[in-house]
Amino acid sequence: MTNQLNLGRLILRVGVSGLMLFHGIPKLMQLLQGDFDFPDPIGLGGAISLILTVMGEAVAPILIIIGLKTRLAAIVAAITMGVAAFVVHGGDPLKDKELALLYLVGFIAIALIGAGKFSIDRK
After folding, report:
1. Nearest C-alpha neighbor of 64 from the set 52, 77, 51
2. Could you give phi then psi for residue 10, rounded to 5 degrees?
3. Which of 87, 95, 7, 23 is nearest to 56 (CA)?
4. Which of 36, 58, 89, 114 is buried most deeply by CB count within 10 Å?
5. Whole-model pTM?
6. Exposed, middle or buried: residue 113 (CB in 10 Å: 0-12, 13-18, 19+)?
């Protein structure tokens, strides 16, 4: 049973975070190219918003996939998805915020259950 639980944790971590990277990598490339033209949903400026988004959509998912500081990284990713769902898409219909909400639920679950045995954290 323990190995099944740990395998489930691994699948959840890699699945949710791997898919999130499809959103985060283009933003990381934008940041690395010095293009700071990015929306400012929380009033910190486009450059800061881009950096925070890259942290939540690229850096945190990579840490989650390898299982390093998993719970903390999942909290960062969950906050990013909370902003996406409730601020960026706050006034939109559910179908437009559904993906952000699914990621939010996944990252909250990861934060609660941890990385498991198949990770660098091994907890």
Report:
1. 77
2. -60, -45
3. 23
4. 58
5. 0.92
6. middle
d(CA 3, CA 33) in angstroms, rounded, equals 43
Blockwise average pLDDT, block size 10, the chain, 123 residues? 90 98 97 94 93 98 97 98 95 94 98 94 77
Which of 123, 104, 12 has the alpha carbon at shortest distance from 57?
Answer: 104
Model pLDDT, residue 123: 65
Cα distance between residue 112 and residue 74, in whole Å: 9
Phi, psi of 84 (to 5 degrees): -60, -45
State residue 1's pLDDT score: 61
Answer for the pair 70, 63: CB distance below 8 angstroms, yes or no. yes
Q: How far apart are CA 81 and CA 111, in angstroms?
A: 13
**Cα–Cα distances in angstroms (integers) from residue 21 to residues 3, 4, 24, 26, 44, in the given order:** 27, 25, 5, 8, 23
CA distances from 116 to 4, 60, 99, 122 (A): 10, 17, 25, 6
